[in-house]
Design a protein that fits this description.
The chain has about 140 residues and is mainly alpha-helical. It contains 6 helices and 3 strands; from the N terminus they run ααβααββαα. A 3-stranded antiparallel beta sheet has the order 1-3-2. The longest helix has 19 residues.
Length: about 140
């Protein structure tokens, strides 16, 4: 079971990377852009990004560094507390994340390789596995 799950993850990541690679994105950087694009201000504190993405602060810093070099994100200081560093999505970042999302939807998420009933069954089973491991399942 574990081997099958890990291999399925690898196969899905290969499909995701095939869509993102031409846009010079990784899935981690895509997630940062997507999250920023969903925020009402288009920006959020770096610490909040890490918390929402459930990754180490070093990983957030690395992703934002690269996105900043690419012109997709810029760092800003919060007016109320200059110690807080915000990551803010740029217009170029918004454009690339929409293009990436369109590609992921059409090439990966809309064609998962399972029927709707199989997807529902698999999602339910994985939910049980996650819940038993203490993960939050919504």
């Amino acid at each position: 079971m574990v081997t099958s799950l890990v291999r399925a993850q690898q196969l899905l990541l290969e499909r995701i990377e095939a869509v993102l690679r031409p846009l010079d994105l990784t899935f981690a950087r895509y997630e940062v852009l997507r999250l920023l694009s969903f925020s009402s201000a288009g920006a959020m504190p770096m610490t909040r990004l890490g918390s929402l993405l459930q990754v180490h602060p070093t990983s957030v810093t690395s992703a934002v560094d690269r996105l900043e070099r690419q012109g997709f994100v810029e760092r800003q200081r919060q007016d109320e507390d200059r110690r807080v560093v915000l990551a803010a999505i740029t217009d170029q970042g918004r454009a690339v994340v929409e293009k990436a999302t369109d590609g992921l939807n059409s090439e990966v998420f809309e064609k998962p390789g399972l029927s709707p009933a199989q997807l529902a069954d698999l999602t339910a089973l994985l939910g049980v596995l996650r819940k038993d491991a203490g993960d939050t399942v919504d």
